[in-house]
């Protein structure tokens, strides 16, 4: 599956990596199963570079609307339920990011078959994937406070699968994920 994602500049990574270490020490299996990114939408095929550029410009404009300073700021941690098209992933632990998404219509991709299959209801940086229904009653560690202005949009080719068939003899469970991030399209300068 392809995801449209916002990727913070690497200057934000140290605080996010430290949070992931806390999650991993707290037995969150899926801590390193997804890149440090904010998934925005699921696509049947990747958006073109031109569409990413248009979206990046629109996202920057939204980040400056109403006298805002162009920063994307973190908020609380929450569990983001995922639709069936994610297979065995039930949810992810996310850190809310105050992103005002531009309208996703009129992108010029629908006629090519790249309509949006799913739009994430709350923008959140994925801190850990949570397989199945393991997230019921899960304690969420307090997330770090961070903000970033520099960010890029990218298509991410993402796959997630169980390591062995459910109920297989000798199965230890577990999941594997793979991703490939396409070329980054940076948001325009905020000044």
Question: What do you see in this structure?
Answer:
This protein has helices at residues 13-25, 49-64, and strands at residues 2-8, 38-43, 72-81, 89-97, 118-119, 124-131, 147-148, 151-162, 175-181, 185-186. It is α+β, with helices and mostly antiparallel strands and 191 residues long. Strands 1, 2, 5, 8, 9 and 10 form a six-stranded antiparallel sheet that branches. The termini are far apart.
- Please identify, by name, the CATH architecture: Alpha-Beta Complex
Q: What is the CATH top level name? A: Alpha Beta
Structural class: alpha+beta
How many structural domains can be distinguished in the coordinates?
1
Helix content: 10-25%
Which residue ranges are poorly predicted, with pLDDT under 50 across at least 5 consecutive positions?
106-113, 167-172
Strand content: 25-35%
Mean pLDDT: 83
How many strands appear in the DSSP assignment?
10
Q: How would you characterize the largest beta sheet?
A: 6 strands, antiparallel
- Tell me the radius of gyration: 17 Å
CATH-derived topology:
Cyclic Phosphodiesterase, Chain: A
Number of helices: 2
